[in-house]
Amino acid sequence: MGSLADLHCHSTFSDGRLTPAELVDLAYRNGVRILSLTDHDIVDGLPEAFSAAERYADFTLIPGIEMSTDVPGNEVHILGHFIDWHNPTFLARLRRLQESRLNRARRMVERLVQLGKPISWERVQFFAGEGAVGRPHIALALVEAGHVTSVNEAFSLYLSRNGPAYVTRDRLGPEEVIAVLLEVGGLATLAHPRELLAAGNLESLLAVLKAAGLTGMEVYYKDYLPEEIDTFRDLASRHELIPLGGSDYHGLGGPQQKEPGDIPLPIEPVQKLLALARERGALERARIAHAR
Ligand SMILES: [Zn+2]
Ligand SMILES: [Zn+2]
Could you tell me the distance, in angstroms and rounded to a whole number, from the CA of residue 193 to the centre of ligand 1? Predict the structure, then answer.
């Protein structure tokens, strides 16, 4: 049941519950031998993950990130693996993204105050913890303040795209994000494509993103059903993308949660990714298993 590889996991440095070291330990216990830590728009958890990986001789750790991007009407997430995460230009860009995210959240809190639904910025930050502040944390603060009864209600009444407290963000498009990842030697993979398929714009998007340098697409993702996996594998193959996957483990529970490695990701596509990284001289940025 368990896969040897899991290319999509989160830690406390974004919105996960485990520290990077705890995540590495759990993944290893679950039989994962090739792991990528892919926190949202941040690489600050990687040093801890790399030092934890040193405990295990037969363990490969790939530096990663999950970047949020927008297309009209939808959010698109792009995973970057094997990135040169020390690159100063890249780090400066991530800092700017983080600042604009903070400003946006502050403006949404201000709008809620104007709407007569005051919440405090401190509570929003509390719910975000070490992670990047976003709408889910504002929603939790709204629930706590008694303005709504659930996170869903917070979104439907105030925070959804057409909601009165919604503030648009200035984020990069997926092609720009792929360019950013390529600049730092990363291999780009489209994350969890189910929503895009449902919205009907996956085919055209894949063609555009492939031309922009996309390498892979998540096919063996978290709770995808066997027939969905078949659909996405066909799509990946038609667009010459490596069919990858991950548990998207956050450790927050819920019915859809999969443990690290609890996905049917075969080893062959992962080996393809590693071979491509080697070809591009990016393999050295991973911590490679040195056993056997
Ligand atoms: Zn995502
Ligand atoms: Zn994720």
Answer: 10
Task: Tell whether 71 and 189 lie within a shared domain.
Answer: yes
Helix, strand or coil, per DSSP, at residue 128? helix
Do 195 and 270 sit in the same domain of this protein? Answer: yes
Q: Which ligand is nearest to the CA of 78?
A: 1
Rounded distance from Cα 84 to ligand 1 centre (Å): 21
Q: What is the pLDDT of residues 151-183, one digit of tens each?
A: 999 999 999 989 999 998 777 899 999 999 999
**Ligand nearest to the backbone CA of 196:** 1
Q: Report the predicted TM-score, pTM, of the whole model to 2 decimal places.
A: 0.88
Phi-psi region of 54 (alpha: psi -120 to 50; beta: other; left: phi over 0): alpha
Report how far ligand 2's centroid is from the alpha carbon of 271 (Å): 21
